[in-house]
Amino acid sequence: MMTIGAVDREKEKKAVFVTVGTTCFDALVKSVDSRHVRNELKKRGYTNLLIQMGRGSYIPRKSCGEDESLVVDYFTFSPSIADYMRSASLIISHAGSGSIFETLRLRKPLIVVVNEDLMDNHQSELAEELADRKHLFCASPQTLGQTIQTMDLDSLLPFQSGDGLPVAKLINKFLGFPAE
After folding, report:
1. What is the CATH number of domain 4-175?
2. An example Gene Ontology cellular component term from the record (predicted)?
3. For 146-178, what is each residue's pLDDT tens digit?
4. Contacts of 75 (CB under 8 A, 6+ apart)
5. For the chain, which residues make up each domain, given as ranges?
């Protein structure tokens, strides 16, 4: 049975979900695990931090002790992260297009952290374009704390999904598939 205090705490829960997808992005996990980023999240009123660390080898610190004001946990993989994303108040993600567009469809505030170690990183172009259009915030592992500190969630504009059918028809025509 849940007590009134537990209900109040559940109402006050403000969760951050971090995802690196199936990749290894230790720089993002280390950044989120840093004292600076954790402090900025706490200052913004976030109470829970869940990190999906993928193939990475860096193990973040879990919260410990009763006085920890930011409850932290992590895992490597899950069959689906959709529930974690839906319950989050803020999502911090790698620059994978799937993660970006899934978050935007959910209309969740999003900080995309670009992996600067990838060569020929086309993902950064997508993230930067969507940031320029005010759909998300873009950061690097080094600037994540500053981005959290200065982000104005009210400045974000909802992303309107476009109709992909004309593009699909053009691709099918180019590839020689029959028109429907």
Report:
1. 3.40.50.2000
2. UDP-N-acetylglucosamine transferase complex
3. 999 999 999 999 998 776 666 566 667 767 777
4. 50, 51, 52, 53
5. 4-175
